[in-house]
Amino acid sequence: MPEKQNYGGLDAFRLIAALLVVAIHISPLETINPEADFLLTRVAARLAVPFFLLVTGRFVLSGVYAGETAAGSAVRRSCKKLLGMYAAAALLYLPIGMYAGHYDGLSFGGLLRMLVFDGTFYHLWYFPACLLGILLLCLLRRFLPARGVWAIAVILYLIGLFGDSYYGLTANVPALEIAYESGFSLFSYTRNGLFLAPVFLWMGAASAKMEPPKNALPNAACLLVSLLLMTDEAFTLRYFQLQRHDSMYLMLPVCVFFLYRLLLLWKVRPPQSIRRIAMWIYILHPAVIVAVRGAAKLFNRTDLLVENRLVHYLLVCLLSTAAAWLLTYCLNALHKRPTSPDRAWVEIDRAALRHNVETLRALLPKDCALMPAVKANAYGHGAVPVAKELNRLGIRAFCVACISEGIELRRHSVKGEILILGYTHPSRFHELRRYRLTQAVIDCDYAEILNQYGKKLHVHVAIDTGMHRLGERSEDTERLYALPGMRNLIIDGAFTHLCAGSSEAPEDRQFTLQQAERFDHVLDAWKLQGFDCPRVHVQASSGILNYPELVGSYARPGIALYGLLSREHDCNRAGAVLQPMLTLKARVAAVKELQAGESAGYNRAFQAEQPTKIAILSIGYADGLPRTIPGGAVLLRGRRAAIAGPLCMDQMIVDVSGIPDVQPGDTAVLIGRSEEAEITAYELAEACGTITNELLSRLGPRLERVYI
Ligand SMILES: *Cc1c(COP(=O)(O)O)cnc(C)c1O
Predict the structure, then answer these.
(1) What is the DSSP secondary structure assignment for residue 566, as one 8-state letter?
(2) Which of 105, 119, 453, 688 lies 20 to 30 Å from 321 when distance is taken between CA atoms?
(3) Cα 90 to Cα 428: distance, rounded to the nearest angstrom
């Protein structure tokens, strides 16, 4: 399975970058050693903002770079966000700026220059720069290929460079000086959205197409060398006093590129909130600086808290981080206002799953592991959350019906062996390897096709012992003999499926035991041949409950894991007490009174013979219920309400005549309890003319799933 790219390193560095920006504004080492301070704040810390730009480019502009038509929505979303942040930050600093006299005698041109280029407060230039850069690149990409945009971004950077740390050279050429000086009436520096941002944003955009780096060493070496060169560049420029400002260096893009590559290899997993915290540190730290100075003055400790720059820096970092964390925490809490599901939903009880796992485990010997069937979206319970919960309970093997189900689990980092019980088309064999999936050998012809793929594949051999569905016929020992010799098949296991395990009838029990005998016969034949199959499994739910003697290395419970049998009175010799996990609910959308003689629904299917009160529920056959449920009912306020006529696609009608106070917004229970009353999955399945397996596995994706 390809590792999902881990961006943890980038996220972690955001925090470091934010603290570097704080350093730029404080110069923590100045009183100790001005040279060291220059190295820290004018060289190393200059990587911070370009790093932020590059990461933004990576996640916002990669679609634009590739020329994708749908790329605009990501751009719009992030521009909106940046604008929001900029506005919030600008407002936050308005009082401080006014107090400091930043806005005194501001002309319209001055306001524009502040808003678009310089930022409304000194460090806020980042936001308009990022926005302007993004817009510029999108515009250019409309008319140019990605390479053309590259060229322009690089040229703009070079122009910026000669207005920044190389300005000393520029100023020697009178024509250039005039040009730049007129530019400086538009913007105070060239480190802005026009000259600095585009090259870093575009670099990030381009990086999405690059192979992720594999080795840290070459990247670290390149980073080190380019950092040394940039240090040399910066000190040289300073020595000759060429710098007008010190944000842009020739080596800066190179350094940032290798830093980025190196960070991609840093496999940490910081909490998600670290991104916001870093951004808030960036925004808040000047306010914290002001506050610390104010407080120091108040307590007469300016000598220690401000003039000692290092102490000042550490204090500001600490307080800014604390403030950013607090703010992020509060905003998260505000955003997470619990929304209740609005239309129709299933509630999944995790505790019941734990109970069922424990109950089933107790029925099996220690060396038999559970290999739960999480096919069909875990019988409607949600494959990924269920499998992840099972992972947490120590389960390391699963079965699914088809390859896409297996891939879905892998994409969500479900751990352990995943066996595909059904057919996989040869065009997808490469995905078996890519996602480390185990394929069932559904018969010997299929084994040959698998073997011909030419690369090793992990398989479990399915043996047909009487169900006559998938599996090679157990009688066909000749053909089964050939399997262990196939060089590309790694046979990890063999299994068979019982088809009458839930029946108490003597002939069915006999049949089941015969199935087991046939399976053993194949295993014995293989053993004689010298092949000892590593793992074997026979029992599904009914096998676990009724045939403890058929235990293998695995057991594959499906329906029992979800707390049910197929039918209420299915054989359960073990007497296991299972807990159903699923409750099905729907919202009452409207309540209506019908007069005698009126009808409701398509084809006037429901006829009110007397004055009748009906409720319309927001659930229909498109949610996975059958259209007709004869004799079916739902629960409302602890009372049963009969289903009135066939279901519509998205709604159903129930008769609530006997139930006072039913209101729009009420919750109707289709499976589960309401006060004293209960409708079990068995009851609804029976009314639907089917078994619980079908009823639950068909519950559709439109139903919200709530895990409790
Ligand atoms: C679906 C399935 C299971 C799980 O069956 P339950 O009766 O739900 O326990 C086990 N094995 C195979 C081969 C299956 O197809």
Answers:
(1) S
(2) 119
(3) 54
The response to whether residue 373 sits with its C-beta less than 6 Å from ligand 1 reads: yes
C-alpha of residue 467 to centroid of ligand 1, in Å: 12
From the CB of 371, is ligand 1 less than 6 Å away?
A: no
- Structural tokens at position 347: 């509630």
Report in angstroms the alpha-carbon separations of 357 from 187, 205, 352, 393, 680: 67, 47, 9, 8, 20
* Cα separation, 158 vs 199, whole angstroms: 10
Gyration radius from the chain CA atoms: 34
Strands 438-441 and 457-464: parallel
At residue 121, the pLDDT reads: 83
| CB 151 within 8 Å of CB 77 | no
How many whole angstroms from its chain centre is CA 282?
Answer: 26
Give residue 143's identity as a one-letter amino acid code. Answer: F
Q: How far is the CA of 512 from the centre of ligand 1 (A)?
A: 15
DSSP for 400-414 reads ESSHHHHHHHHHTT-
pTM: 0.60
Q: Is-contact 141 64, C-beta < 8 A?
A: yes
First-last CA distance in the chain: 31
Q: Which of 663, 628, 660 is nearest to 644 (CA)?
A: 628
**Separation of alpha carbons 69 and 575, rounded Å:** 60
Predicted pLDDT of residue 477: 87
Sign of CA dihedral 87, 92, 93, 94: positive
Tell me the pairing of strands 599-600 and 582-594.
unpaired
Q: What atom in ligand 1 is closest to the CA of residue 470?
A: 13
Cα angle 196-110-199, degrees, rounded to a multiple of 5: 10
Q: Do the Cβ atoms of 420 and 406 come closer than 8 Å?
A: yes
Q: What is the pLDDT of residue 340?
A: 76
471 CB near ligand 1 (under 6 Å): no
| Nearby residues of 644 by Cβ (< 8 Å), 6 or more positions away | 600, 601, 606, 614, 653, 654, 655
Does 421 sit in the ligand 1 pocket, CB within 6 Å? yes
Strands 677-679 and 599-600: unpaired
- Non-local (6+) Cβ contacts of 587 within 8 A are 341, 342, 343, 344, 617, 618, 665, 666, 667, 668
**Contact criterion met (CB below 8 Å) for 164 and 244:** yes
Point out the catalytic residue in the list 81, 103, 456, 602.
602
What stretches in the chain show pLDDT beneath 70?
1-5, 337-339
Cα(651)–Cα(621) distance, integer angstroms: 8
d(CA 63, CA 71): 5
Where do runs of H (alpha helix) occur along 616-674? Answer: none
| Catalytic status, residue 602 | yes
pLDDT for residue 116: 86
Q: Which atom of ligand 1 is nearest to the CA of 559?
A: 8
Report the nearest-CA residue for atom 15 of ligand 1: 421
> What are the residue ranges of helices labelled H in 252-273?
252-264
How far is Cα 652 from Cα 645, in angstroms, rounded to an integer? 8
Query: Given the CA of residue 540, which atom of ligand 1 is nearest to it?
Result: 9
Element (H, E) at 438: strand 438-441
| Ligand 1 neighbourhood includes 372 CB (under 6 angstroms) | no
Residue 541 near ligand 1, beta carbon < 6 Å: yes
Q: Which of 455, 409, 405, 411 is nearest to 433 (CA)?
A: 455
> Cβ(643)–Cβ(684) under 8 Å?
no
